[in-house]
Task: structure prediction
Amino acid sequence: MNPLQEITWLDKATINETQGSLHTARRVSGRLNLYRIPWLRPVFESRWPQFLVRLLALVGFVFAIVAGLFGSVIGSHNFAIIFVWIAWWSAFKLVFIPFGGRAWCSICPITLPGDWLQQGGILSKGHGLGLNLRWPKRLKGSWLQSSAFLLIGLFSALTLTDPRLTGWVFVALFGLAIGLSLVFEHRAFCSYICPIGGFSGIYAQTAPVELRVIDIEICAKHSDKSCYHACPWGLYPVAFRDNAACGLCLECLRACPRDNLALSLRPFGTDIGKPRTANRLDEAFLALVMLGSALVFAAVFVGPWGWLKSAAFAVGSLQWMAYSASFLSLNLLILPGLFALAVWLGQRTSRVKLPLKREVANQSQALLPLGLMAWIAFTVSFAFPKLGYILGVLNDPFGWGWKLLGAGYTFWSPDVSGFSPVLQVILLLIGLFLSANVTRRLAGSDFRRTVPILAFCLAFSLGMFWLLVG
Amino acid sequence: MRQEWLARILVILLLAVAVSIPVVGWWQRSQGVVLHARMAETGGWTPENLTVQVGEPLHLRLTSDDVTHSFAIGQSDQPAVDVIPGEITEITLLFDRPGKYTFYCTRQCSLNHWRMRGTIEVTGSSTTTETIKLPLYVTLGLDIDAEHHADVIPAQKPSALRGALLNQSVPAIYLSREYYLAHTPLELWKALRGEPAFQPLTGQDVWDLVAWVWQSNTAPQELQVGQQLYSTNCAACHGEGGAGDGIFAYSALTPISLPSGEGQGVRVPPVNFTDPSHMLSASPAHLQGKIIRGGMGTGMPYWGPIFTEDQTWALVAYLWSFQFELEKKP
Result:
C-alpha cells in the first residue's frame, strides 16, 4: 500500500492539493529552522532530553494520581489538584499552546507506558505487544475529542476541585491510552480520543512553531518514506498543511536520511486564514466546543453566581442536570447554530458561493485566535490567584502535615485584581482583532461576507468581557 | 540496547520513588490519631469516640475535610484550636481525672454545627474523690417543658439604675442568691407588689426594683463571659439581639436528615429572649435547665457536657440583659 494512503488525517486528494502549497511555503521567508542551529541540534537529535522531560512528567502525574487518591480531600492542599489544574493546565494554556503548539504532546507522559508496550521499547523499537489494528474510519477526526472535552466539562466543577476524581480521571486516561495502544496502531488515543490533544491540536495552528518538509521533491524521490515509518502517530510529514495533527515527537527528523525536515519558528497564526481544502466540520465543531466551554467555565469558576457553582458541583442532582442540559445545548445547538447562521448570512451576501459545509470549515479558523485568547484570559482569573498554592503543595503534597520546604511555610494567594482585568481586556481584544483579520483574509475583498462572522466573534468577546471583567 | 535498558530502569526506579514516598508517609501517619472534622451533615468527627488512660498523653492530629472548624473540650480550660481544611494541627491532651469528656466544634460551620461532637473516654483511677452535683433545676424539680407566660409585663424595659435610684429597702430574703436562682422575675414582682412598703410605687417602679435585684446578683465579669458565650454559641440561632432571628433560625424550622438518623423531631423556632411574657415567667434555674439539657428534639443543643456550671450561670445572667437594663450607669 502506498504510504500516502496510510495517513490518518487527510485523504489522498487533500495531500495532492497540499503539496502545491507546501512547495510554495518552503520559499516563504520568516522561518528559522531550529534543527539547523548547531548547538541546538543535538538536543533534538538525541532522544534522551525529550525522554527525561517526559519521564519527569510521568513521575509528576503518577505522584499526582497517588496524591489525588490517598491525600487530603481538600483540593487546595492536595498536589493532584494544584499540580494538574493550576500548574500544568495553566502552563499548557499560557505557554505550551501559544508558543509551542502541540509541544506538550512531545513530552506527554500519558502515552509513555502504552508506547513502551506497543513499540516494545522506550527509546528503540522491539517486539511490541499490540494488535496494531487500524482505527475505524468512521471514528476518525476530532469528534470523539470534542465529546471527551464536553464530558469533562459536565463534571468540571467536581473534577477541578475533588482530588479523588482528578486521580481517577488520570487513571482512566492512562488506562485508556494503554488499552488503545495495545489494540490499535500508532497513537490512536492521542489522535482521536485525548481531549487535551484536541485542545492543543486546533490551537497549535496559531503557534509560532512548525514541523515541515523542506523540499518536497526530495521526499517524492525517496521511496523508503522512513519519516512515515518512524512516526509513532502514523503521519506522513509531506502531507502536513497545518499543525493540527503533528505531536512534535521529532522522530521524523531523526529518521530522515536527507535531513529534509525542519523544526521552524514562524510568525504566529501562519496556518490560519487560508481556504480549507476539505469539509473539516469536526475541527469547526471542536473550535465551537472550545468557545462554549470557555464561556461556561468562566461563568462557573469566575462568575459571581453561587447557585451556578452549586449546580455544576452537585453531580446527579436536578440542578446539575439543568446545568448539563444548558451546557450541552450551548455547545451542541446554540453556538453551532449561531455560527452556521452567521456563515449562511455571509454566504447570502457573498459573490463567492461555496458549499455551506466548506464555508463553515473555512470560517471556523476565525474562531481559533479568539478561542485561545479567551482561554488564556480565563486562566488569568482562574489560576493566577492560586499560584501561591503551588509552593504550598510542594511543602505538603498530601495535606498530611509535612513540612518539606520548612515549618514556617504557609499558603498564600497573590492579589491579581489590580492587573488581571486590564490584561484580560487586552487579551480578548487581541483575540478579536486576530480573528477579524483571519475572517478578512478568508473573504478577500468581499467585506460583506465577513460581517456576520465578525458579529459572532464580537458577541462572544462581549460575553467573555462581561463574565471576566464585569 | 544498553541505552534502552537504562531508560527502562530509570522509568521503573522513578515510578517506584513516586509511589513509595506517599506509602512511607502513609505508614508514618498511621502512627498517631488523625481526627478528621467534617460538617455534621457529612459525618462530623471521625473517629467520634476516643479512649485514653488517665495521665497518658493523647496526641491528636486534627484536620478538616471541608470548612474551617475548631476543636475544644467541654468543661475544660483547654483553649480551642482551629482546624483548617487540608492542614494538620497537632495537640497533646493530658487528663488527670477519669470520665467522659465531650469534644466539639466552636465555629458555626454549618446549619447543624452544634451536632459536631465526640467523646474522649478517660479510663483509670482518680486520685481525688468527687461528688456529683445535680443541677439546680433538677433539685428544684422544675418542669422546664411546661408552658409559661407572664400575666403581667412591664410597659417599658425595666432598668436596674432606675430601681437603684428609687432608694427602696428590699427585704433581704429577696436579695439572696438562692431566691434569685429559684424564682422568676414575675414572682419577685408579685412578692414586692404585695409588700406594704412598696404600695405607693407604680407597677413599672416595681419592675425597676426587680431589675435592680437581678443586677445585684450579677457580677460585671459574669455578664462579659456570658456575652462572649452567647455570641459564640447562641447568637447564630437566637440572634445577636436575642429576638430568635439569628442567621440559622430558619434551619430550626427546616426538616433535616443526618447520616446518623439524628435531626428528626419537633421543629420549633428559637426562643425569643426579648419576649417579656416568656422570659419574666422563667427563673434562672429554668434557663439553666434549658441550657444544660437542651430542647429535647428541637434544634436547641444540650450544653451540659460543654459549659461549666459557672459558664452556664454567666450565660443565664447575660440572657436577662434582653429583659432588663443592667448597666450600673446611664
